[in-house]
Amino acid sequence: MTGVPLRKRVSVKTLLLVLLCGWLFAALLGVLLQFGLDGQSASVGDALLERNAETASANAVTSVVVSYRGFDTLGEVTVLFLAATGIGLLFGGRRPADGGILGASGTPPNEMVVTGVRLLFPILILLGVYVVLHGHLSPGGGFQGGVIIATAFFLRMLADPAFRLEHGRIGLLESLSGSGFVLMGLLGLTLVGTATFLGNFLPHPVAEMGRLLSAGVIPIIYSLVGVKVGAEVAAIFGDMLERDARQSADPPVEASDA
Amino acid sequence: MTALLALLLFAWMIAGAWIAISQDDLLQSVVGLSLVSLGAVGQFFLFQAPDVALTEAAIGVAASSFVLLMGVRQFGRYEDKELK
After folding, report:
1. What is the mean pLDDT of the segment spanning A132-150?
2. I want to staple A135 with a disulfide (CB 3.0 to 4.6 A). Which of A141, A166, A179, A258 is the partner?
């Protein structure tokens, strides 16, 4: 159509890249379509479900997350910790010289926000604690309950600018619960006969299944996970809000340029 | 019945995603993303994954929306026309 020759209209590098991507896609599709057909990988979930009664945890997902795959959970919590650390470095790095962030945000919070948060805060805390403590009985657990508690504190920080989370105290809480998690794992390693990390060393009779005090070490570990996740997510929210408040306190430099 | 509900939720999620893309008002875009997550909560619950549904409700609907809202508060509410 145009006078430009074909080799100028089609870049060879792009064409090669597209071909490579297509070949990779086809190869991976060939692998993925075979996956699970041999019955080997499909039976893992069924095997865990069959053995679920031995953990005496009514919620089978929890017994996988905390007991059978507890080490993975430790890794996930560590990833979250690293994310919170990175966000803290990014957002809380430069403190203003006067150190004054109190009352920094210009406009006071809306009356409806204040009233609504006053109503919601205790309910959210109660819901979060319930979700954490009933992790081995009903859906939910440490991660979900921890995030719910952190959300409650975030709303509180929005409604009340004078309310601040003390970073030192949050860090202490977070590290104590993290160390408690590892300590539980090591105790399981030493006390249980099979010597497994995070082994269930407390008595967990199957007859008690479904009660609040059952499943041995699982509710303790999930509570520690809940405290740790709540502290980390609340620290992330706190970092972002403080940075936000500090920026709005600064004189708008960009606005004068425009 | 389950299939019908699932289709409804799919429509809900697509509508939320469309709101998130098409709105100039970034506050409403965040609400649209939150609606997508809310539809995902319904889907997870419908297909018997209540644990994942609870996680999605706590993180997808609440926490990630909060993070995005703080971004909106810092960078202004309306989309820059020159970027379009």
Report:
1. 86
2. A141
Please check whether residue A27 lies inside any domain of the structure.
no
Residue B78 β-bridge partners: B25
The sign one gets for the Cα dihedral A196, A199, A205, A207 is negative
Highest mean predicted confidence (pLDDT) among A94-98, A122-126, A250-254: A122-126
Locus of tokens 């921890």 = A146
Residue B44 lies in a domain: yes
Span B42-54, average pLDDT:
88
Of residues A123 and A41, the one with the higher pLDDT is A123
Using a CB-CB cut-off of 8 Å, the residues of chain B touching A235 are none
* Domains identified in chain A, total number: 1
Residue A137 CA to residue A211 CA, distance in Å, equals: 8
A41 φψ region: left (φ > 0), alpha (ψ -120 to 50), beta (else): alpha
- Report d(CA A137, CA A146) in Å as an integer: 17
B54's CB contacts (< 8 A; 6+ apart) are A131, A139, A140, A144
- Greater confidence (A14 vs A108) lies with A14
Cβ separation A151–B53 shorter than 8 A: no
List residues bridging with A152 in a β-sheet: none
Residue whose structure tokens are 């160390």: A179
- The span from the CA of A147 to the CA of A21, in Å, is 39
Amino acid at B62: A
Whether the CB of B5 is below 8 Å from some CB of chain A: the reply is no
Choose the closest CB to A147 out of B50, B63, B67: B63
More confident call, B50 vs A245: B50
Going by C-beta distance under 8 Å and a sequence separation of 6 or more, which residues neighbour residue A162? A102, A103
Nearest CB partner across the interface for A139, out of B54, B63, B67: B54
Q: How many distinct structural domains can be found in chain B?
A: 1
Residue B13 belongs to domain spanning: 1-75
pTM of the model: 0.74
